[in-house]
Amino acid sequence: MEKEKEKEKEAANGSPAVNKTPKSSAKKSRGPPQSSVDTFAVQCNDCFKWRTLATEDQFEEFRSKQSEDPFVCNKLEGIVCDTPADIEYDSSRTWVMDKPNIPKTPKGFQRVIVLRRDYSKMDVQYITPDGTRVRAAPGIIAYLKEHPEYSNLSPTDFCFTSPKVMSDTIPEHIEKKSSSPNVKSPSVKKQKKSN
Question: Per-residue confidence at 174, pLDDT binned at 50, 70, 90?
């Protein structure tokens, strides 16, 4: 599955956060959160062509079922494998790869993914229905305990696993951090030094 981010939107960090909640370390956001992801795409399991999707919800639906029901072109109306690809994997934009089977975002919540300015990784956070910004699993656990109206939800309904930034699509003017585990790059074997 694929998410991508155009070069022009280098680091949409969202709105500043205020009002720390002591128990959950969650924060209220001042304005609407801004995700770094602007286009959602999936790759056909048969022809390997990339297909853009109209909504994040549609992307999450396919991603959540990827292992049990892999995406194929004919799942989109009027599309078959012979249809030209909607988008090509190239360095005209920064691509990030999400893991398959991440659960769909619970109704009323929003999953926001923000690319760091140095392109080293993406940060995942959830915005709750009341505007609280939660950045880690302990925050979700505390939030759900503090809000019994969400007793039908479990912490496993939320995933803070960040997509992998594809290093071959990072703009050339960005200094790449080779030590970051969240930047996927071609593997290069180091030669042993001889004494």
Answer: confident
CB 147 within 8 A of CB 134: no
32 phi and psi angles, rounded to 5 deg = -65, 135
Closest of 26, 13, 56 to residue 38, by C-alpha: 56
- β-strand partners of 165: 96, 183
Structure tokens at 122: 């993406």
Per DSSP, the residues of 19-34 read ---TTT--EEESS---
Q: pTM of the prediction? A: 0.71
Strands (E), the chain: 2-6, 17-18, 27-29, 39-43, 50-53, 93-97, 110-115, 122-127, 132-134, 164-166, 183-184
Give the rounded distance of the alpha carbon of 9 from its chain centre.
Answer: 15
Enter the DSSP assignment of 73. G
